[in-house]
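Input/output pair, single chain:
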Amino acid sequence: CVSARGCFPRGKYWLCHLVPGLLLAGLAMGLFAAVQTESNYGYVHSAWHVLIALSVLLLLPEEKGPCAQEG
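Output:
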């Protein structure tokens, strides 16, 4: 934080990555908990996998962040 003169994550990262990632994960959990039945299991479970994968993609830190190793 001292050498970069700011701490990670910055405001833009929160807005573009963390908030959408958490919203997608929350939507996936909501689908899993409230919508899934035996008759629609395949569709809801597939949608759950897609939403969780997208949320993980958004929530992973950037490679060039202050914690990334140089070299």
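The helical segments are 11-35, 41-59. The chain has a mean pLDDT of 83.
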